[in-house]
Design goal:
The protein is mainly α and 274 residues long. The protein has one domain (2-271). Helices cover 84% and strands 0% of the residues. It starts with a helix and ends with a helix.
Length: 274
Protein backbone atom coordinates (compact mmCIF):
# COMPACT_ATOMS: atom_id res chain seq x y z
CA UNK A 1 0.00 0.00 0.00
CA UNK A 2 2.97 2.33 0.41
CA UNK A 3 3.51 2.23 -3.35
CA UNK A 4 -0.14 3.08 -3.96
CA UNK A 5 0.09 5.97 -1.49
CA UNK A 6 3.26 7.26 -3.16
CA UNK A 7 1.65 7.22 -6.62
CA UNK A 8 -1.47 8.89 -5.22
CA UNK A 9 0.59 11.65 -3.57
CA UNK A 10 2.41 12.31 -6.83
CA UNK A 11 -0.86 12.54 -8.77
CA UNK A 12 -2.28 14.87 -6.13
CA UNK A 13 0.82 17.10 -6.17
CA UNK A 14 0.74 17.27 -9.97
CA UNK A 15 -2.93 18.19 -9.91
CA UNK A 16 -2.53 20.85 -7.22
CA UNK A 17 0.37 22.43 -9.09
CA UNK A 18 -1.61 22.60 -12.35
CA UNK A 19 -4.07 25.32 -13.27
CA UNK A 20 -7.02 23.03 -13.98
CA UNK A 21 -7.74 22.43 -10.30
CA UNK A 22 -8.08 26.13 -9.55
CA UNK A 23 -10.07 26.71 -12.75
CA UNK A 24 -12.51 23.90 -11.95
CA UNK A 25 -12.98 25.07 -8.35
CA UNK A 26 -13.49 28.68 -9.48
CA UNK A 27 -15.91 27.70 -12.26
CA UNK A 28 -17.88 25.43 -9.95
CA UNK A 29 -18.10 28.15 -7.27
CA UNK A 30 -19.23 30.86 -9.70
CA UNK A 31 -21.82 28.61 -11.37
CA UNK A 32 -23.09 27.32 -8.03
CA UNK A 33 -23.55 30.82 -6.63
CA UNK A 34 -25.14 32.11 -9.81
CA UNK A 35 -27.48 29.16 -10.21
CA UNK A 36 -28.43 29.27 -6.53
CA UNK A 37 -29.12 33.00 -6.64
CA UNK A 38 -31.23 32.82 -9.77
CA UNK A 39 -32.89 29.54 -8.86
CA UNK A 40 -35.72 31.27 -7.03
CA UNK A 41 -36.76 33.34 -10.05
CA UNK A 42 -39.31 30.77 -11.18
CA UNK A 43 -40.94 31.09 -7.78
CA UNK A 44 -41.29 34.86 -8.02
CA UNK A 45 -38.13 35.97 -6.25
CA UNK A 46 -34.41 36.16 -6.81
CA UNK A 47 -31.89 35.33 -4.10
CA UNK A 48 -30.93 32.68 -1.57
CA UNK A 49 -34.41 32.35 -0.09
CA UNK A 50 -34.45 28.69 0.87
CA UNK A 51 -31.40 26.56 1.63
CA UNK A 52 -33.05 23.26 0.76
CA UNK A 53 -34.46 24.53 -2.53
CA UNK A 54 -31.13 26.14 -3.35
CA UNK A 55 -29.46 22.78 -2.77
CA UNK A 56 -31.90 21.20 -5.19
CA UNK A 57 -31.01 23.80 -7.81
CA UNK A 58 -27.36 22.74 -7.60
CA UNK A 59 -28.16 19.12 -8.43
CA UNK A 60 -28.25 19.47 -12.21
CA UNK A 61 -25.03 21.47 -12.20
CA UNK A 62 -23.29 18.74 -10.20
CA UNK A 63 -24.60 15.96 -12.43
CA UNK A 64 -23.40 17.83 -15.51
CA UNK A 65 -20.00 19.19 -14.50
CA UNK A 66 -18.48 16.71 -12.00
CA UNK A 67 -18.79 13.61 -14.26
CA UNK A 68 -17.32 15.51 -17.20
CA UNK A 69 -14.23 16.59 -15.26
CA UNK A 70 -13.71 13.18 -13.62
CA UNK A 71 -14.10 11.24 -16.88
CA UNK A 72 -11.77 13.58 -18.77
CA UNK A 73 -9.00 13.39 -16.18
CA UNK A 74 -9.36 9.65 -15.70
CA UNK A 75 -9.17 9.15 -19.46
CA UNK A 76 -5.76 10.81 -19.59
CA UNK A 77 -4.23 8.94 -16.67
CA UNK A 78 -2.83 5.90 -18.50
CA UNK A 79 -3.29 6.86 -22.15
CA UNK A 80 -1.48 10.13 -21.50
CA UNK A 81 1.51 8.30 -20.06
CA UNK A 82 1.46 5.98 -23.07
CA UNK A 83 1.42 8.94 -25.49
CA UNK A 84 4.41 10.53 -23.77
CA UNK A 85 6.33 7.26 -23.82
CA UNK A 86 6.51 7.29 -20.02
CA UNK A 87 4.37 4.22 -19.38
CA UNK A 88 7.14 1.75 -20.23
CA UNK A 89 9.46 3.57 -17.83
CA UNK A 90 6.85 3.55 -15.05
CA UNK A 91 6.20 -0.17 -15.49
CA UNK A 92 9.93 -0.84 -15.26
CA UNK A 93 9.89 0.50 -11.71
CA UNK A 94 9.46 -1.87 -8.72
CA UNK A 95 5.67 -1.67 -8.62
CA UNK A 96 2.78 -3.76 -9.87
CA UNK A 97 0.45 -2.52 -12.58
CA UNK A 98 -2.52 -2.52 -10.23
CA UNK A 99 -0.59 -0.39 -7.74
CA UNK A 100 0.08 2.22 -10.42
CA UNK A 101 -3.54 2.29 -11.51
CA UNK A 102 -5.06 2.34 -8.01
CA UNK A 103 -2.61 5.07 -7.03
CA UNK A 104 -3.63 7.18 -10.00
CA UNK A 105 -7.30 6.56 -9.20
CA UNK A 106 -6.83 7.65 -5.58
CA UNK A 107 -4.78 10.72 -6.48
CA UNK A 108 -7.11 11.90 -9.23
CA UNK A 109 -10.24 11.28 -7.16
CA UNK A 110 -8.72 13.17 -4.21
CA UNK A 111 -7.73 16.14 -6.35
CA UNK A 112 -11.16 16.43 -7.99
CA UNK A 113 -12.77 15.99 -4.57
CA UNK A 114 -10.67 18.84 -3.15
CA UNK A 115 -11.70 21.15 -5.97
CA UNK A 116 -15.35 20.14 -5.58
CA UNK A 117 -15.24 20.62 -1.81
CA UNK A 118 -13.70 24.06 -2.28
CA UNK A 119 -16.51 25.07 -4.62
CA UNK A 120 -19.20 23.59 -2.40
CA UNK A 121 -17.62 25.12 0.71
CA UNK A 122 -17.44 28.68 -0.61
CA UNK A 123 -20.92 28.46 -2.15
CA UNK A 124 -22.32 26.86 1.01
CA UNK A 125 -20.97 29.61 3.28
CA UNK A 126 -22.45 32.35 1.09
CA UNK A 127 -25.78 30.56 0.72
CA UNK A 128 -26.03 29.83 4.45
CA UNK A 129 -25.32 33.49 5.27
CA UNK A 130 -28.14 34.80 3.11
CA UNK A 131 -30.69 31.95 3.18
CA UNK A 132 -33.79 32.30 5.31
CA UNK A 133 -33.80 28.61 6.24
CA UNK A 134 -30.93 26.19 6.81
CA UNK A 135 -30.70 22.54 5.80
CA UNK A 136 -27.04 21.80 6.29
CA UNK A 137 -27.57 18.04 6.48
CA UNK A 138 -29.25 18.03 3.07
CA UNK A 139 -26.43 20.10 1.61
CA UNK A 140 -23.77 17.76 3.03
CA UNK A 141 -25.71 14.78 1.69
CA UNK A 142 -25.55 16.28 -1.80
CA UNK A 143 -21.80 16.87 -1.41
CA UNK A 144 -21.27 13.23 -0.39
CA UNK A 145 -23.26 11.97 -3.38
CA UNK A 146 -21.31 14.15 -5.79
CA UNK A 147 -18.00 12.93 -4.35
CA UNK A 148 -19.15 9.32 -4.80
CA UNK A 149 -20.09 10.12 -8.39
CA UNK A 150 -16.63 11.63 -8.92
CA UNK A 151 -15.06 8.31 -7.85
CA UNK A 152 -17.36 6.36 -10.18
CA UNK A 153 -16.59 8.53 -13.18
CA UNK A 154 -12.86 8.59 -12.48
CA UNK A 155 -12.94 4.79 -12.52
CA UNK A 156 -14.86 4.75 -15.81
CA UNK A 157 -12.38 7.24 -17.23
CA UNK A 158 -9.56 4.89 -16.25
CA UNK A 159 -11.29 2.03 -18.07
CA UNK A 160 -11.42 4.21 -21.19
CA UNK A 161 -7.77 5.15 -20.68
CA UNK A 162 -6.57 1.55 -20.32
CA UNK A 163 -8.34 0.22 -23.42
CA UNK A 164 -7.42 3.16 -25.67
CA UNK A 165 -4.23 3.40 -27.72
CA UNK A 166 -3.98 7.20 -27.48
CA UNK A 167 -5.14 9.98 -25.19
CA UNK A 168 -7.39 11.36 -27.93
CA UNK A 169 -9.17 8.02 -28.25
CA UNK A 170 -9.56 7.76 -24.48
CA UNK A 171 -10.95 11.28 -24.23
CA UNK A 172 -13.39 10.60 -27.06
CA UNK A 173 -14.64 7.45 -25.34
CA UNK A 174 -14.92 9.32 -22.02
CA UNK A 175 -16.99 12.07 -23.65
CA UNK A 176 -19.24 9.44 -25.21
CA UNK A 177 -19.80 7.84 -21.78
CA UNK A 178 -20.61 11.28 -20.31
CA UNK A 179 -23.03 12.16 -23.11
CA UNK A 180 -24.90 8.86 -22.86
CA UNK A 181 -25.07 8.86 -19.05
CA UNK A 182 -26.18 12.48 -18.72
CA UNK A 183 -28.32 13.10 -21.80
CA UNK A 184 -29.22 9.93 -23.69
CA UNK A 185 -29.81 7.22 -21.09
CA UNK A 186 -33.30 8.30 -20.01
CA UNK A 187 -34.45 8.72 -23.61
CA UNK A 188 -33.18 5.26 -24.54
CA UNK A 189 -34.98 3.66 -21.62
CA UNK A 190 -38.23 5.48 -22.34
CA UNK A 191 -37.95 4.23 -25.92
CA UNK A 192 -37.34 0.69 -24.70
CA UNK A 193 -40.35 0.86 -22.39
CA UNK A 194 -42.54 2.09 -25.24
CA UNK A 195 -41.28 -0.51 -27.71
CA UNK A 196 -41.12 -3.53 -25.40
CA UNK A 197 -43.00 -5.07 -22.49
CA UNK A 198 -40.36 -4.04 -19.96
CA UNK A 199 -41.96 -4.45 -16.54
CA UNK A 200 -41.39 -2.75 -13.22
CA UNK A 201 -38.50 -4.99 -12.31
CA UNK A 202 -36.85 -4.17 -15.60
CA UNK A 203 -37.33 -0.47 -14.90
CA UNK A 204 -35.61 -0.81 -11.53
CA UNK A 205 -32.68 -2.72 -13.03
CA UNK A 206 -32.42 -0.14 -15.78
CA UNK A 207 -32.15 2.63 -13.18
CA UNK A 208 -29.21 0.85 -11.57
CA UNK A 209 -27.29 0.79 -14.87
CA UNK A 210 -26.63 4.52 -14.74
CA UNK A 211 -24.71 6.00 -11.76
CA UNK A 212 -25.80 9.52 -12.72
CA UNK A 213 -29.44 8.47 -12.46
CA UNK A 214 -28.75 6.73 -9.14
CA UNK A 215 -27.30 9.91 -7.66
CA UNK A 216 -30.12 12.03 -9.09
CA UNK A 217 -32.85 9.82 -7.59
CA UNK A 218 -31.05 9.53 -4.25
CA UNK A 219 -30.72 13.30 -4.03
CA UNK A 220 -34.33 13.98 -5.01
CA UNK A 221 -35.63 11.41 -2.52
CA UNK A 222 -34.09 13.43 0.31
CA UNK A 223 -34.61 16.89 -1.17
CA UNK A 224 -38.14 16.74 -2.54
CA UNK A 225 -39.55 13.22 -3.00
CA UNK A 226 -42.10 14.16 -5.67
CA UNK A 227 -43.00 11.18 -7.85
CA UNK A 228 -43.23 13.34 -10.98
CA UNK A 229 -39.76 14.77 -10.42
CA UNK A 230 -38.34 11.30 -9.74
CA UNK A 231 -39.32 10.06 -13.18
CA UNK A 232 -40.77 6.64 -14.03
CA UNK A 233 -37.84 4.60 -12.71
CA UNK A 234 -37.48 6.38 -9.39
CA UNK A 235 -41.25 6.51 -8.96
CA UNK A 236 -41.57 2.75 -9.38
CA UNK A 237 -38.81 2.15 -6.84
CA UNK A 238 -40.41 4.48 -4.29
CA UNK A 239 -43.84 2.91 -4.71
CA UNK A 240 -42.50 -0.62 -4.28
CA UNK A 241 -40.03 -0.27 -1.38
CA UNK A 242 -40.55 3.21 0.09
CA UNK A 243 -37.97 5.83 0.99
CA UNK A 244 -35.87 3.61 3.26
CA UNK A 245 -35.78 0.69 0.87
CA UNK A 246 -35.04 2.89 -2.13
CA UNK A 247 -32.21 4.62 -0.25
CA UNK A 248 -30.67 1.28 0.75
CA UNK A 249 -30.89 -0.25 -2.73
CA UNK A 250 -29.53 2.82 -4.48
CA UNK A 251 -26.74 3.28 -1.92
CA UNK A 252 -25.55 -0.31 -2.40
CA UNK A 253 -25.72 0.12 -6.18
CA UNK A 254 -23.72 3.35 -5.97
CA UNK A 255 -21.09 1.67 -3.79
CA UNK A 256 -20.82 -1.11 -6.37
CA UNK A 257 -20.37 1.49 -9.10
CA UNK A 258 -17.47 2.96 -7.13
CA UNK A 259 -15.71 -0.42 -6.85
CA UNK A 260 -16.46 -2.17 -10.15
CA UNK A 261 -15.05 0.30 -12.73
CA UNK A 262 -11.69 0.77 -11.00
CA UNK A 263 -11.45 -2.99 -10.42
CA UNK A 264 -12.21 -3.60 -14.11
CA UNK A 265 -9.62 -1.00 -15.11
CA UNK A 266 -7.00 -2.66 -12.88
CA UNK A 267 -7.75 -6.09 -14.37
CA UNK A 268 -7.64 -4.80 -17.96
CA UNK A 269 -4.39 -3.00 -17.22
CA UNK A 270 -2.87 -6.21 -15.87
CA UNK A 271 -3.63 -8.17 -19.05
CA UNK A 272 -2.91 -5.42 -21.58
CA UNK A 273 0.48 -4.75 -23.13
CA UNK A 274 2.05 -1.36 -22.43
Amino acid sequence: MRVVAAVARKELRDAVSSSWLLMYAALFTVLALGLSYLGERNLGSVGFENFSRTTASLLNLCLLLAPLVALSLGAGAIAGERDRGALTYLLAQPLDRWELLIGKFAGLSASIALATLAGFGIAGIVIAFYASTLAVGTYLMLVALVLALVCVMTGLGLVASVISATRVQALGLALLIWFVAVFVFDLLLIGMVSATSLGGGGLMLALLLNPVEIVRVLAIIHLEPDLQILGPFGSYLMERVGTGGATAILSVALAAWVVVPVSLAAWLFEIREA
